[in-house]
Each structure stands twice: as C-alpha cells, then as structure tokens.
Amino acid sequence: MALIETVDLWKTYVMGGERIHALRGVSIAIERGEYVAIMGPSGSGKSTLMNLIGCLDTPTRGAYRLNGRNVDQMNDDELARIRNEEIGFVFQTFNLLPRATALQNVELPLVYAGVGHRERERRATAALEMVELEDRLLHRPNELSGGQRQRVAIARALVNSPSLVLADEPTGNLDSRTGDEIIGLLQVLHAAGNTVLLVTHEAGVAAHADRVVQIRDGEVAHDQAPQGAHSAPRRERRGAVGSPQADAGGLGRSPV
Ligand SMILES: Nc1ncnc2c1ncn2[C@@H]1O[C@H](COP(=O)(O)OP(=O)(O)O)[C@@H](O)[C@H]1O
Ligand SMILES: [Mg+2]
Predict the structure, then answer these.
(1) If you take atom 27 of ligand 1, which residue's CA is the nearest one?
(2) What is the pLDDT of residue 227?
(3) From the CA of 45, how far away is ligand 1's center (Å)?
(4) pLDDT tens readout for residues 200-217
(5) What values do phi and psi take at 35, rounded to 5?
(6) Rounded distance from Cα 43 to ligand 2 centre (Å)
(7) Which segments of the chain have a pLDDT < 70?
(8) Which of 48, 213, 216 to mutate to test the pocket of ligand 1 (most atoms within 8 A of CB)?
(9) Exposure letters 64-98 (e unless 16+ CB within 10 A, then b)
(10) How far is the CA of 121 from the centre of ligand 2 (A)?
(11) Which numeric CATH code is attached to 4-224?
C-alpha cells in the first residue's frame, strides 16, 4: 500500500467571483521511504499540493489516502489529529513561535499529542541533538541564524515520529551554503528511512531525489527518476525516524 495516494485531486479557489483551479486532477502515489522532489514554476500549484498532502487543507474534488486513511472528507479536528500523528512540515519561513525557546518550539507537537513534560523534554532534546543544536536549547528564534532556525523547524517536524516529512522550499530564505546544509540534512533523514517530499527550484537538489515530479498549471507534467540517478529501488524501509518499528528511532543513532 502506498503511503500517499491521490486520485484526480482538484483544488479550486474562488476569489471575487473568479475561480482559480490551482490543481486540476493530480493523481500520484508515493511509497514509504521514497524521496520525491516537486518542481514547477511559481503559481503552478506546488504549495497547494503540499498543503493537501500535509492535511492543512482539503481538496475541492478527488480522493486522498494517507497511510491507508481517507483524508479528503475529514473535518478540521480530524485533520489536526492526523497532521499531528503523521506529518512533519518544514516551511520556507520556518514558522517558529518567536517567544518560545528552541526546546519549547520542538516540544509543541508533543504538547498537542498529550506527551508528559519529562518525556517531551527528553525527545525534544534528542531531536535538537540530531540537528546539532544541543548547545542552543534555550535560545529563542531571534537569537539563532536562519540555518539554525530551519534546523529547529526540522527537529520539530521529526519529534513526533511522523510517517512523512514535507518541506516546501525550505531553503528559500537561506543563503546557498546554509541551504546546502539543510538539503544535506534532509538527505540524511531519507537515508535513515524517512519518506521525504521536497519542493525545490534547484535541479541540482532535485537530482538527489529518487524521483522528480514536475507540476505545470495544476497538473503533473512529468514524473520520473532524475536522468543518470542511481535511483534506489523502492523498498519497504524499517527503522525510520518515527516508524513504529524503530527501536530507538532518530537516524538510527540518537533516540527521538
Ligand atoms: N488561498 C488562496 N486563495 C486563492 N488563490 C490561491 C490561494 N492559494 C493559492 N492560490 C492560487 O493558486 C495557484 C497556485 O498557487 P500555489 O499552490 O501557491 O503555487 P506554487 O506553490 O507552485 O507557487 C496560484 O494561481 C495562486 O495564486
Ligand atoms: Mg509555493
């Protein structure tokens, strides 16, 4: 069973009487353990697709199954729950709470999940160690560099052991060297068995993915492994960060 399966997914926005078809029938299946890059021009529907896959929004039409569950008809409460259980989201703008420390930001999904204080602190600290921020636990976002903020966001995305990590242009607000570090970190997460879906503008970044999906005008224009890539065969991976099978989790090293 695919981790993600969308069938003829449409999203239509209505603005001032005008209808904007942001997605026009996207059908896509993504297996557990894949690393998929989504590319396409600005306005082609990439973020709309990520938001639907990430359960931040529901489609106008079409079916979406995530980890065997029908998501397309869920109400806001159900979406919030499945998001908390299944999805780690990394945004271009980091989306951290400005008054909260790195540790508190990373603990947040665990607060929603009802995890107790000590266990929260233990898991959030381990997640921050994994992104090499163990010496910045008590810093607030404005006391961190852009790259460090995005690493806090990645730790937050992973702390709840999600089925899926979504990153929508995570390097868009970073200089290229810092961006490369973030992309490197996503590759490490994938190598550890995580399913990663990344929106990027850079062909060089996409070349590291198992598969590149090109979006044009709300449709899938192209979907294949990058040219010359030694594409890993699709496999059922175990022991991913967050997979229930993982005994220790966390990149196979630090427990998260
Ligand atoms: N909340 C919204 N309300 C109305 N139109 C929107 C909304 N979000 C996106 N759109 C429109 O949908 C299209 C796709 O947008 P988006 O998914 O953000 O594209 P991308 O991420 O590829 O740049 C664009 O034409 C955009 O203007
Ligand atoms: Mg976008």
Answers:
(1) 43
(2) 64
(3) 6
(4) 988 888 988 999 999 999
(5) -120, 105
(6) 7
(7) 227-256
(8) 48
(9) bbbbeeebbebeeeebeebbbbbbbbbbbebebee
(10) 33
(11) 3.40.50.300
